[in-house]
Amino acid sequence: MRIELQDLVVRHPAAARGTAPALGPLGLRIEAGEQVAVIGPSGAGKTSLLQGIACALRPASGLLRLDGADPWTLPAPALRRLRGRFFLAPQTPPLPPRQRVVTAVLAGRLPHIGLLESLRSLFYPSAIPEADAALARFDLADKLFDRVDRLSGGERQRVGLARALVSHASLLLVDEPLSALDPARAAQAMETLTTAARERGATLVCTLHQVPMALQHFPRVIGLQDGRLAFDLPAAEVTPERLRALYAQHLDELERPAPVPAGEPLAPAAPVAMQCR
Fold it and tell me: How much is the pTM?
């Protein structure tokens, strides 16, 4: 799916009048099948960008086009069909705690199946092999029939990514997918996600706090600062000087190590180089 933003401005509905917008004005173009990482300090507008593209936040001004269509001018049925073509994965996956993992993963298919099958799948999942294969790519096949509330935070985050794999969406919008993962699991998850998107030709836009992961796994990196575009460059051109300027008021975020979540043993992994030239 192709994404075009022309002077897009996004405001949160609860924001006080007169405050700066959460995002914009911002202009971007992302071609179908591209893989793009979005980085920047906390409050830079990364999540707002994904929500704006996903039609979760209506533009205050400017223009959004998805495959050439302005989603906000479409009739309601057409907008629902368009929304069914993309998948928004929030940082904290919305997984009901008493639900089985298999059911949680297969919820990613709901926009693509009928109402009757959707209801039936809550009690009798009909695509168990698909869920099993997606979980296996994140080393979670043994959790297929576990309850969600028995999982660690890192395991729940990987279940959310497995849900994205079964969604069959042509646009994957993934928000901070590594926040609960140790470095080894984070590298594996990022490699799995980018490979899966490439295999099916899906566009992937991923926000990341882990700058080394963005530079290692994505050919194109967008830097946001105070809701504005700081740079839009090939990863090889994102220099240490650009990063220091981007995180000037938040250097602790640029330098802090990845968290090690409770209940997730830290697997040995080679250190990830910054890969800035």
Answer: 0.86
